[in-house]
Amino acid sequence: MTKLKIDCFILIFGELLRMKHSLNACLLVNKEWCNLVVPILWKSTSAHYYFKNDELEKKWFNTILSCISPSSKQLLFDNNIELPSTILLKSPLFNYISFCEFPEAIVINKIVEMWETLQPLPSFPGASICFSQLRRLCIDIDLVNPNNIYKLAQICKDLNELSINNCYQDFPGLITLIDVQRNLKSVELHNSGTFKELGNALARKKNMINYLYSYLISSISLSFLTSLINLKEISIYNYCNEYDEDFKHYFEISEFPDLEHLQINHLSCFKEISFLIEKTKGNISIIYIHTNNENIKNTGMLVKAIANNCPNIKRLTTYLDSRDFIYVKSLLLNCRYLELIRFDSMNTFIDEDDNTGDELLDILIKFSPNSLTKITISGRWKYSNDTFERFFESYRERTLSYFAVIFSDMYYITLDQVLMIRKYIEERVIKSTK
Questions:
Q1: Is residue 156 located within the same domain as residue 62?
Q2: Is residue 410 part of a domain?
Q3: Which SUPFAM superfamilies would you find in this protein's record (predicted)?
């Protein structure tokens, strides 16, 4: 086949990925087609790993194992791991491994479980080449021998992403692994406890780390946060409320001028987050704030800070008091790229005769940018039917791609208003409520 024909066939076969049975049939047409289809199928399988039955999964693993070197097969044999005779006696038609991206951790774990080997991966022939090319690594400290982490640090030095689970104390091997990294961009901390040296190691990578994700942190020294001056994205999930004061302190004194994405869960530090936003360069595009604390304060201060310092923001999820509606006008006027807003309320005292939400809807009617087509509002505010209708009519020419009302223990949306929402869905003014 000519080069042009080959390129055309590759494009066609790539489109057939959505119809696997048809693509599999192409394997049987002739040798040339088979040579083109096999790499496409294997790259797709490794990138989207899933199987509907154990037998198919086992065949796939056996094919992978058939491609490992004779010395690796011998190492398995020396450790009393019996491979199927088909793997030992028959060479594969293709070097299938060469078509795959680096297997996901779940794939490696399942292969290890299938053959019940405790042989450390770094001791396998070819491990130095394999792990020297590793770009993403997830370590569960509960399941890994700390000495093996130190061994891994000798050959794995070009990680872009590192995820650390269940780290409740400092491990020298882990500190070494972080210290030797030359291009560490993203760090995730899950179920972390008290440590000092790990924080210091992260601080030493302050010029590299752009993304920080922390989940279920407790008893942790947050002093390293102030060092990460090049952060572009920070996501904090704090389910231990007694550490709110620590977060407040470090948010207040930290500076992340290049911040683009801020996500805070289960923290009630709206004032300190406002200070943090005021020290950015205006690159923030996403802010997501969630809390269960009904005694939150300074929600208006946060909206004001966003309005004054985030001209490029596209998605905003936060809380409002009815007294904060005045700041929403400035937000809509200054942030003309807004695509999504979600305003929740912790208000628990509502005057039965007060249609508090009408003020918010009027502001949205008058000042929303054309880009704002995804809107979620609290059901704790009362709205008059007339204002509700005027709000939807204001979107008749541009369509609300998403509209929802947040349900809570106090919910003032009436049956008439529910029917009104359905009416505008039928008329395609509202595209989706789910």
A1: no
A2: no
A3: RNI-like
- Does residue 144 lie in a domain region? yes
266-305 burial, b if ≥16 CB within 10 A, otherwise e?
bbbbbbbbbbbbeebeebbbbbebebeeeebebbbbbbbb
Which distant-in-sequence residues (6+ apart) come within 8 Å of 60 by Cβ? 45, 51
For 31-49, what is the mean pLDDT? 66
Report, in angstroms and rounded to the nearest whole number, the Rg of the chain calculated over CA atoms.
28
Alpha carbon 53 to its chain's center: 29
Domain membership of residue 224 as a residue range: 129-231
Please give the structure tokens belonging to residue 175: 């500190």
Give the integer Cα–Cα distance in Å for 147 and 128: 16
Are 18 and 75 in a shared domain? no
Confidence label for 143 from pLDDT (cuts 50, 70 and 90) = confident
Question: pLDDT-derived band of residue 214, with 50, 70 and 90 as boundaries?
Answer: confident
Strands (DSSP E) along 74-217, which ranges?
Answer: 136-140, 161-165, 186-190, 211-215
270 within domain boundaries: no
Q: What's the whole-model pTM score? A: 0.75
What's the pLDDT score for residue 375? 97
Domain count, the chain: 3
pLDDT exceeds cutoff 70 at 111: no
CA distance 345 to 286: 20
DSSP structure string for 273-304: HHHHHHTS-S---EEEEE---TT---HHHHHH
Residue 119 in this model has a pLDDT that exceeds 70: no
The three-class DSSP label of residue 359 is helix
User: Per the domain annotation, does 425 fall within a domain?
Assistant: no
Least confident of 60-69, 88-97, 334-343, 423-432: 88-97
